[in-house]
Amino acid sequence: MEYTGSRYNGEHRNGRLEGKGEYILPTETRYEGEMKDGMFHGQGALYFPNGSKYEARWDSGVALEGKYTFADGLQYEKEKWHYCDGYDRRFYNEICNGLKPAGRSQLTNLDPPRQIPEGCYDCGDGFYDPVSRVVNDYQHRFLRNADDDEHEWIIQTCRKGWDEVTGYKPKH
Predict the structure, then answer these.
(1) Which of 21, 140, 147, 154 has the highest CB neighbour number within 10 Å of its CB?
(2) How confident is the model at residue 88 (pLDDT cuts 50, 70, 90)?
(3) Span 28-86, pLDDT tens digits
(4) Helix, strand, coil percentages for the chain (3-state, nearest 5)
(5) Rg (CA), the chain
(6) Does the pTM exceed 0.90?
(7) Eight-state DSSP code of residue 103
(8) Where are the alpha helices (DSSP H) in 40-147?
(9) CA geometry: angle 96, 101, 105, nearest 5 deg
(10) Distance (Å, whole) CA 153 – CA 20
């Protein structure tokens, strides 16, 4: 271990790391749990310097199943992941504390909402008209033509000037 910069505090059997112990890597990532023949084996957790952790059941150094928990307490879920997706770009803490998303997305979350021309979408740097496929800034000056990918993204994620779901309609 002196050559790798790792440290181990725990049980030994026949001169090998075996039983319960704590293995600290040179990166300060720390494993706490069961060892067998010098490898992670059984129940154990990796604790990362940023405060996150990975708890797993190990077999000869390979994680068979486990769960990752971010430093803020959010547990990663492969299915039904609701954070930082295309519909809500907020992080776990922002959702828990009722905060709006950081960065440019705040431009479309103004309170009160920005007036959007009927049939257009607020795409953060201006208004998008899906008929002409043109983005104009908020002073109605041309910014760009939207390609197919941007068109789809705006239609799926941005607030529309007349929103049939919420009943919000801009005043003219």
Answers:
(1) 154
(2) low
(3) 999 999 999 989 999 999 999 988 899 999 999 999 999 888 887 777 777 766 655 55
(4) 10, 35, 50
(5) 26
(6) no
(7) G
(8) 92-96
(9) 160
(10) 51
